[in-house]
Specification:
The chain is an alpha+beta fold. The protein has helices at residues 2-27, 171-178; strands spanning 33-35, 45-46, 73-76, 84-91, 96-104, 109-110, 128-130, 144-145, 148-159, 187-195. A hairpin with a 2-residue loop joins strand 8 and strand 9.
Length: 198
């Protein structure tokens, strides 16, 4: 009788632990996600978003305007307490290809083709954008390294407040200003450059 009672108690304890584990898993908030309707994670960036347009062998010199436009970007599953975002795009050697700083916390997307400069209505209110050599989207160069296509890393950071950085801030300045202000894990998207079929 005692053995049966002990078995029943052990079984109930085990089931209770399983229920508690499942409840904890069900209450874990979903991770911040980053996506685009025109760019897919781990797939080549279409040439229209590159510096070189449909001419993959040409690299645009510094200061030269190009027809590249940024792709539309979307995100979801925003952590609680998020009041701002920073989107940063860097290449495989950490060159800042694009940053959109101080995106308001209630915004969930950026449109395609935000023009250079910070006066565009396409930019969210209070946000600004820059790259390592312009005040806007520069676009990746459609060229390859010795191992193949160059790779670009898109990172969206959720923050508890907007950053106090100048509009010509460097990548390191922006990263330093974000320290201690993340409300959750960053979302990452990776794209090699570039696909000449689009």
């Amino acid at each position: 009788m005692k053995c049966n009672l002990l078995r029943v108690l052990a079984l109930m304890t085990g089931l209770g632990a399983i229920d508690a584990t499942m409840a904890a898993e069900n209450t874990t908030p979903p991770q911040l996600t980053l996506s685009s309707p025109t760019v897919k994670d781990m797939e080549p960036l279409p040439l229209k978003y590159s510096q070189t347009g449909t001419r993959p062998s040409i690299v645009v010199p510094p200061g030269m305007n190009n027809g590249a436009v940024n792709p539309p970007i979307e995100w979801s599953n925003v952590p609680e307490g998020t009041n701002a975002f920073v989107l940063m795009v860097s290449d495989h050697i950490d060159t800042l290809m694009w940053a959109v700083v101080n995106i308001p916390g209630n915004v969930r997307s950026l449109p395609e083709g935000i023009p250079n400069g910070n006066d565009s209505s396409k930019l969210p209110a209070g946000a600004f954008h820059l790259s390592f050599r312009s005040n806007g989207w520069i676009g990746p160069a459609a060229r390859q390294n010795a191992e193949g296509r160059w790779t670009y890393y898109w990172k969206l950071y959720p923050l508890d407040k907007k950053l106090n950085v100048p509009e010509d801030a460097s990548r390191d300045d922006i990263l330093a200003a974000m320290e201690g202000h993340l409300t959750g894990n960053k979302a990452v998207m990776i794209t090699p450059c570039c696909d000449g079929s689009n």
